[in-house]
């Protein structure tokens, strides 16, 4: 395993894009390994020298709609980059007229479970789930076993993800073991490739520790991603406090358990000048606090997840563990506040909080089942169906909240449709009706409350650095062939 | 929101494709072979069970307690994963009086302490030929969970803070006796730790279904969120709740509530929320006093109220056996029918 730093210089020398993403470049440096599909064009033209000058293995996306302007364009892909489509001699043409082309989606909040809990998910299966959802980059949470709290583990994840179906940007823990006490080596974590810091799942209850973390993170230039939850208010709660919890006899978690911590950390952002990113916001009072922090000019950002605009705590039905997540599904007024915060721009970006669990874990009584649902493969469909179709957001804005917006929040390399940009792309059919079938997920997790739902719109093809990582059967993207299931 | 997909977010309207997963509810759950809770039970069903309980009570009074044949050849298992004396004994007596063979197990020394899951434990015992399980468990939803997962009849003997339907039914029988058969136009006060009480939840579902008004009173720390949406009123004080009521139900107060910082002291609780003879005297002349037991005398109820002329505390216990017999008989009839026609689709 070569060190990422040495690998980076080699990648730059060879003109590949791995380094743009700060990725472990061992497998990035070879276009052939980066793009297994390139085997097909090579086979079609056996006489072509492996390193002929000029674009080779060119793919042309013909007549696709630009996600911002809506105009019909032809998009060329060669050597992992977007190239000028004029005068190309494509070896493969995708006639996806009507499909929308956009930079690949980004999810800042994914639990890949590896190392340590590979029965729930692995980096490989999580990345394939991401690709199937239209994602080309994900940021993974450090609450693995062991916790990603050293540069060695960040490095390990990046190398393990080097050939995965999407780019994987690990986050490092804020405190050693996520115990909320001793800070980790932020600068070393950053040097190893951590894009943010988070104790997700284990809120930092000590305001003093959070203060020092924010102060110290300024050196590293990294945001601290906050899972906001006052554990004393949460108690033994297992779902949102309210009528449904009362009816079901389940201990409730008040929305204030989240919002008091958001308030606290808005104040600490002011005190320290540090960057705070609020994870998976779910309730009206939290959005109000974030709005307030922004009005005061603080470096605060926030995300929310599809289930918070699609569902309320009524979805728990009669103790359905597939509707158990943390933060919990909230009231109808909180759902409406989530929509309002999305529409007025208080929400900076979307995220899934993809949290796979095994069937055995979820197949328990409600109190024992772990919190969390999978989200990568339903995120786009729920966005188009829940936000665009009813007219809350334009298609462009909805896509932006999954693409440019999260890239800005974590300062990830930008991706565009212009020649020279890495060809990290998604093709979306916004009008395609489909039915969620959890049993067909690429993720190991089947724990979704949306199984069987009829949605409109989904990704039909995904490219990581020009390499098809997903192609939906029965669509124009089928011509890409069945992407290797890694 | 009126779009179609949002309907799926409402209770009971989940789209249920074939083979979608374990949480898919088989049609058998709502069939009569289970008693999982009083929520959603039609008034007519409740009254049928009360009528049958009354018939058993009469039979035992007139003909003695020799075992009947209702449950002959029927194997009942009382699976108590949580401590219980009166509910367990009451079910055991009821099963025996109807001629069932039955076993009882508690958690002490059983495989549960070896980490076996609830489901595996029940599944294992079911494989021994048990026809019906009475399940008491600390997890809300435990009884429904077993009924969804395994092909056995389930009677909920109390699931966490959720429901205790046979207690609710015996409370209804006690009140029907006291109120001359009329539930409409009556008002019951329920006082105390509503938040943690499965007894209160089942009583609320039963009484509101039958047309009785329910007024709750208790410290705000022990009152569950949005409880009014269950169709009840919350009174600011025990005096307000009891004045002019047709009865009062005192709920058991657990000492843990003090440790959790929800109450300052037992003495203050008794002074502010305790059911005393003096407070009982503010109700209607024929009003009754109930308590699900076991009582903390001198805490949520005083001696003069518990043992006074209005008290139905021990009548409740007597009715418990009759109601549980009626429930077991009803479920056994449905379970036998289910066994003869297992594929018969029922209402979802």
Account of the 3D structure:
The complex is a heterodimer of chains A (486) and B (348). By secondary structure, chain A is an alpha/beta fold. Chain A has 17 helices and 18 strands. Chain A has helices at residues 4-14, 31-34, 39-44, 123-132, 151-160, 186-192, 207-220, 231-234, 243-248, 256-272, 284-295, 306-310, 332-343, 359-362, 379-388, 395-400, 404-410, and strands at 59-66, 72-78, 81-83, 92-95, 100-103, 105-110, 135-140, 167-170, 197-198, 224-226, 239-240, 252-253, 276-278, 300-304, 349-350, 425-435, 454-464, 467-471. The two termini of chain A are 20 Å apart. Chain B is of the alpha/beta class. Chain B folds into two domains: 28-164 and 318-340, Rossmann fold (3-Layer(aba) Sandwich); 165-316, Rossmann fold (3-Layer(aba) Sandwich), CATH 3.40.50. Chain B has helices spanning 4-7, 43-63, 86-97, 118-126, 142-149, 165-178, 198-209, 238-242, 256-259, 266-273, 277-280, 303-306, 313-340, and strands at 75-80, 101-106, 132-137, 153-159, 187-191, 213-217, 233-234, 247-250, 288-290. In chain B, strand 3 (132-137), helix 5 and strand 4 form a beta-alpha-beta unit. Chains A and B meet through helix 9 of A and helix 1 and helix 5 of B.
Layout of secondary structure:
The complex is a heterodimer of chains A (486) and B (348).
Chain A: H1 4-14, H2 31-34, H3 39-44, E1 59-66, E2 72-78, E3 81-83, E4 92-95, E5 100-103, E6 105-110, H4 123-132, E7 135-140, H5 151-160, E8 167-170, H6 186-192, E9 197-198, H7 207-220, E10 224-226, H8 231-234, E11 239-240, H9 243-248, E12 252-253, H10 256-272, E13 276-278, H11 284-295, E14 300-304, H12 306-310, H13 332-343, E15 349-350, H14 359-362, H15 379-388, H16 395-400, H17 404-410, E16 425-435, E17 454-464, E18 467-471
Parallel strand pairs in A: 1-4, 1-5, 6-7, 7-8, 9-10, 10-13, 11-12, 13-14, 14-15
Antiparallel strand pairs in A: 1-2, 2-3, 5-16, 16-17, 17-18
Helix pairs in contact in A: 5-6, 7-10, 10-11
Chain B: H1 4-7, H2 43-63, E1 75-80, H3 86-97, E2 101-106, H4 118-126, E3 132-137, H5 142-149, E4 153-159, H6 165-178, E5 187-191, H7 198-209, E6 213-217, E7 233-234, H8 238-242, E8 247-250, H9 256-259, H10 266-273, H11 277-280, E9 288-290, H12 303-306, H13 313-340
Helix pairs in contact in B: 2-6, 2-13, 3-13, 6-7, 6-13
């Amino acid at each position: 395993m070569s060190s990422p730093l040495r690998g980076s210089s080699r990648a730059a020398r060879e003109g590949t894009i791995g380094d743009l993403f700060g990725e472990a470049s061992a497998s990035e440096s070879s276009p052939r390994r980066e793009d297994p599909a390139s085997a097909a064009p090579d086979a079609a033209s056996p006489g072509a020298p492996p390193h002929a000058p000029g674009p080779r293995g060119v793919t042309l996306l013909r007549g696709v709609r630009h996600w911002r302007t809506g105009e019909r364009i032809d998009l060329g892909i060669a050597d992992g980059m977007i190239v000028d489509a004029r005068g190309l001699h494509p070896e493969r043409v995708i006639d996806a007229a009507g499909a929308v082309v956009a930079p690949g989606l980004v999810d800042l909040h994914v639990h890949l479970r590896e190392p340590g809990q590979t029965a729930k998910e692995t980096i490989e299966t999580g990345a394939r789930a991401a690709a199937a959802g239209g994602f080309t980059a994900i940021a993974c949470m450090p609450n693995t076993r062991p916790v990603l709290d050293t540069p060695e583990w960040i490095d390990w994840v990046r190398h393990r993800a080097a050939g995965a179906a999407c780019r994987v940007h690990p986050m490092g823990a804020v405190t050693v073991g996520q115990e909320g006490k001793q800070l980790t080596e932020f600068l070393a974590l950053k040097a190893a490739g951590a894009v943010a810091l988070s104790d997700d799942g284990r809120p930092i209850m000590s305001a003093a520790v959070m203060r020092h973390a924010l102060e110290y993170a300024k050196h590293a230039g990294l945001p601290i991603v906050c899972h906001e939850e006052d554990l004393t208010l949460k108690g033994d709660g297992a779902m949102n406090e309210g009528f449904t919890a009362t009816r079901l006899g389940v201990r409730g978690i008040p929305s204030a358990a989240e919002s008091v911590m958001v308030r606290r950390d808005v104040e600490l952002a002011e005190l320290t000048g540090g960057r705070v990113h609020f994870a998976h916001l779910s309730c009206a009072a939290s959005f109000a606090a974030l709005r307030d922090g922004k009005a005061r000019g603080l470096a605060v950002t926030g995300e929310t997840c599809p289930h918070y605009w699609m569902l309320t705590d009524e979805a728990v039905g009669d103790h359905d563990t597939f509707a158990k997540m943390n933060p919990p599904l909230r009231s109808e007024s909180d759902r409406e506040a989530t929509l309002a915060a999305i529409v007025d721009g208080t929400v900076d970006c979307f995220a899934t909080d993809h949290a796979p669990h095994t069937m055995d874990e979820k197949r328990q009584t409600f109190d024992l089942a772990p919190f969390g649902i999978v989200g990568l493969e339903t995120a786009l469909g729920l966005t188009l169906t829940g936000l665009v179709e009813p007219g809350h957001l334009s298609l462009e804005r909805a896509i932006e909240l999954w693409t440019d917006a999260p890239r800005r929040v974590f300062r990830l390399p930008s991706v565009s449709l212009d020649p020279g940009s890495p060809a990290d792309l998604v093709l979306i059919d916004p009008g395609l009706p489909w039915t969620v079938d959890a049993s067909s997920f690429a993720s190991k997790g089947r724990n979704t409350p949306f199984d069987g739902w009829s949605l409109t719109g989904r990704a039909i093809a995904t490219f990581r650095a020009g390499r098809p990582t997903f192609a939906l059967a029965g669509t124009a993207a089928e011509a890409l062939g069945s992407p290797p299931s890694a | 929101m009126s779009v179609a997909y949002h309907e799926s977010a409402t209770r009971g309207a989940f789209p249920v494709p074939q083979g979608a997963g374990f949480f898919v509810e088989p049609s058998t759950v709502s069939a009569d072979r289970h008693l999982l809770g009083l929520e959603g039970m039609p008034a007519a069903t409740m009254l049928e069970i009360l009528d049958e309980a009354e018939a058993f009570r009469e039979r035992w009074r007139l003909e003695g307690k020799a075992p009947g044949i209702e449950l002959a050849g029927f194997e009942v298992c009382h699976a108590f994963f949580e401590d219980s004396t009166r509910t367990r004994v009451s079910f055991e007596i009821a099963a025996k009086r109807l001629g069932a063979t039955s076993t009882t197990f508690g958690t002490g020394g059983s495989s549960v302490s070896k980490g076996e899951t609830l489901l595996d434990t029940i599944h294992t015992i079911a494989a021994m030929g048990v026809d019906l399980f009475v399940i008491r468990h600390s997890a809300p939803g435990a009884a429904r969970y077993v009924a969804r997962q395994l092909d056995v009849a389930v009677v909920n003997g109390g699931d966490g803070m959720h429901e205790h339907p046979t207690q609710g039914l015996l409370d209804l029988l006690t009140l029907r006796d006291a109120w001359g058969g009329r539930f409409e136009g009556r008002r019951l006060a329920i006082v105390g730790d509503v938040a943690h009480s499965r007894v209160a939840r089942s009583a609320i579902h039963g009484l509101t279904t039958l047309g009785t008004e329910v007024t709750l009173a208790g410290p705000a720390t022990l009152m569950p969120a949005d409880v009014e949406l269950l169709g009840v009123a919350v009174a600011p004080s025990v005096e307000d709740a009891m004045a002019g009521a047709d009865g009062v139900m005192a709920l058991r107060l657990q000492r843990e509530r003090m440790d959790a910082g929800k109450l300052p002291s037992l003495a203050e609780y008794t002074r502010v929320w305790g059911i005393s003879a003096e407070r009982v005297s503010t109700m209607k002349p024929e009003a009754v006093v109930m308590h699900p037991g076991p009582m903390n005398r001198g805490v949520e109820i005083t001696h003069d109220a518990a043992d006074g002329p209005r008290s139905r505390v021990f009548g409740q216990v007597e009715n418990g056996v009759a109601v549980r017999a009626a429930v077991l008989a009803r479920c056994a009839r449905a379970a036998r029918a289910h066994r003869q026609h297992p594929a018969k689709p029922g209402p979802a």
